Amino acid sequence: MIIDLISDTVTKPTKGMLDAMMSAKVGDDVFKMDPTVNALEQKAAKMFGMEDALFFPSGTMANQTAIKLHTQPGDLIIADKYAHIYNYESGGVAFNSGVTCKLIDGNRGMFTAKQIEEFAAVKPQIYLPFTKMICVENTTNKGGGACWDFSELEKIKQVAKK
Ligand SMILES: Cc1ncc(COP(=O)(O)O)c(C=O)c1O
User: What is the pTM of this model?
Assistant: First the structure.
């Protein structure tokens, strides 16, 4: 058997998956009339302890929308040098949100809270871009599917809050 990991898109849906698609209850999502999307959003909101959730049909759309929502033009976002948002989204961060990236030299797409702290230690000046987001990609794409250590994510959250 050949296992081709060139992309997730190489994987074909199984018969069970295709059957589920064909028999799914559907409707107009704009009017919140798609029961399958509604159920998925409710499940995701519950899972992450959020008030609500929003289904996006592509990862790039979700990433670009999140960046747009959380930044203003001229802001800076911190990301690993391997980050998908920096490398593989057609410069969308600049085009859609007008932001710039500070790239961290991490390991397999993952950085540490200490690296963020070191960067944040530079005293903000009026002429420096304002850091608004820390991008944590889990699992990492260009990092070969590496998975973050949860305790490191908690530390990064603390640094972000500070
Ligand atoms: C981390 C990450 N973000 C975004 C994407 C883009 O997803 P899509 O092709 O659904 O836009 C990928 C695709 O592999 C990814 O690995």
Answer: 0.89
